[in-house]
């Protein structure tokens, strides 16, 4: 694997660890907040469920309030108090004979109605018109919905007849709810013979407003996996957007200069690039002289002459050699002096090299190597 591949794989691994950490932290914080909120609200929901359960049961009983019940009061005087006292056992005569019935104190304390006469009336009414578990459950559920509590409810009705046999019925679709603990029970009748027990459970996704945060979490994880899947494409796009100028100005420029310095003599003919002694670059194909940010366009004859200097040993040329190269030996002195003048002007301000005439040779030299002499041309 090359260096670029190792760098990409390393970046992908770092992205994996950072992304996993962030997504896990966000998910963990939300789960903690949700769990705490859920636990704190359960007691409040249970209180509302108990309140609506008793309300629904009272309303169901009141629906039977217009039923006529034959009732005969005894001649014996009876002392009553504001609070009905607990009495057990009780004696009751019916078509099955006279029997004594034990009433557990817990049932009496949780009676829907404690008044003795009303309990006796309810025993008769509920025997003729018993409660319906499904109807009561639907009524209870509707009251909870009005109070903005989304709960699963269930009802169990237990009835003990005059022969002390107990029968039990359940509301439909409440098997799952009935597996948990009961919420509360209420008892109706003279013998507390009708027991109504309510069951409730809560689905957190229905009770709490969780779908918007869950959607955000799912989108967060989805974006994270997309980033891992298309990591190379995303990182390449970001590099192009963020470091495009840096690549063009810095990296490319340095690469060209190094190549010119190392391969000038071997590849100058192929690339058309020449480097002068002071680092000035001649692009013979474009006819441009470059030194840092300075550039200058050269005349064609000046380009040929400068290339001739660079290819000659010690950068020395005679007038005959220049004439032969530029004009095939048919040039005139003023043409020679003119092209030398143009070369000198082209070098000024962009290169520290100068053209000097010495010992019948034109020399391309650095200024510190030039001795005092009499210039010709």
TrEMBL record:
UniProt xrefs under InterPro entries: Sig_transdc_resp-reg_C-effctor (IPR016032), WH-like_DNA-bd_sf (IPR036388)
One Gene Ontology term of the molecular function aspect: DNA binding
Keywords attached to this entry: Membrane, Transmembrane, Transmembrane helix
BP GO annotations: regulation of DNA-templated transcription
Transmembrane segments: 12-35, 210-231
The protein's name: Uncharacterized protein
Source organism per UniProt: Bacteroides intestinalis
